[in-house]
């Protein structure tokens, strides 16, 4: 456990430095990281597939997954507000479930984000190449990775400042979309090319469930991974001026964030256009909606927003991977160099170690996209659900530890404990089971991620046994 998590007031501990990390994130940084953390590029790019699969009922899919994320964040917020640390749920699992759990979920989470670096770098490079084709796509990916690596190596405040503006653009864009689209829905937007059908499009084309109730579950599988990243604020809180306040605020606001950004924006899309319209399939849901209103250059506007979301995800992905590596190093589960911070309060070795694997993943994506990189992608595919599941089981144990040792820090509490915690465990387990039942890439992701998790677990158990044997020999 870190110094900040074992003694004194949590806000004061973080402000004075957390094992070398400096509290360089301001409250405005944390607020925007929390708000923007739930808005990933997947919302802008992948929502059209969910709409095609479930029709207007995709709203139920988003609501179900949104509720699951709200519950998980509430549980994580309870632990993080009482015990802010850069290792977040990995450090809590280490204490509540055992060292094997913290080791396994920490390294799986690190692996997930370094693979995401390659996905997002490639996505950003595709957009940039479209604007400036003289620079090849691989060069754009390299430039983007280098720039954000330098940013993260500079200081934690550099990361926070970049993320503040990246997330700010996303938040302003999606908020404007909801307001403008909402007015157009009801024919209240001056000059709109869309006459506005109110909520009629939700039922006019085959009903609210045009593909049957089962399509809701198919929609769940398509949208669940677009929510990954909401937990980043609990890792960043350890380097903030007042971590307890930041985590409490982020946890309490997650409901409206998901309600406005996800449910609100998707409601606008399926209300402005029929769910089976060719425009949504061809242009993407948000571009099609903007085009229907008559917003000029909608495609390029959305490209700018998607690029911002991609850069935000890259920036946060590198930060998150490096802080998880730092925490693992602190606990002796990663190289000792990962646990050291330089004079700027930045874990330089952890950042460079993470970005090296990120560069390798980008290389694999360009050289062997359908073999090596697809394997890496599928092996990390179900990690998000594993992380949420571990958070649930950890919270079941940590509630008692917090109440027994630091009851004054128990300022955020999971609702209807333990019943809602167990219900969330059931929801996540059901989604994993349905992925296996659904077959195809979904089944492959669960099986490969489970196999990778088992391998990391075995390594963790072996290392833990060696440590215990060495400790016994020394005594």
Set out the fold topology.
Elements (H helix, E strand, L loop, with lengths): L9 H6 L11 H10 L4 H14 L3 H25 L5 H9 L2 H33 L5 H18 L1 H30 L28 H10 L8 H5 L6 H30 L5 H6 L1 H9 L4 H33 L17 H20 L4 H8 L3 H23 L13 H20 L1 H35 L1
Helix pairs in contact: 2-8, 2-11, 3-9, 4-9, 4-11, 4-17, 4-18, 5-6, 5-17, 6-7, 6-14, 6-15, 6-17, 6-19, 7-8, 7-14, 7-15, 8-11, 8-14, 9-18, 11-13, 13-14, 14-15, 16-19, 17-18, 18-19
What does this structure look like?
Mean pLDDT is 87; it is low at 1-18. With 475 residues, the chain is mainly α. Helices cover 72% and strands 0% of the residues.
In short:
This protein has helices at 10-15, 27-36, 41-54, 58-82, 88-96, 99-131, 137-154, 156-185, 214-223, 232-236, 243-272, 278-283, 285-293, 298-330, 348-367, 372-379, 383-405, 419-438, 440-474. The chain is mainly α and 475 residues long.
Main attributes?
single chain; mainly alpha; disordered N terminus; 19 helices
Structural class: mainly alpha
* Oligomeric state of this protein: single chain
> What is the number of helical segments per DSSP (H or I, 4+ residues)?
19
Q: Give the terminus-to-terminus CA distance.
A: 23 Å
Radius of gyration, in Å, reads 22 Å
Which spans have pLDDT < 50 for at least 5 consecutive residues? 1-18
Residues in helix, %? over 70%
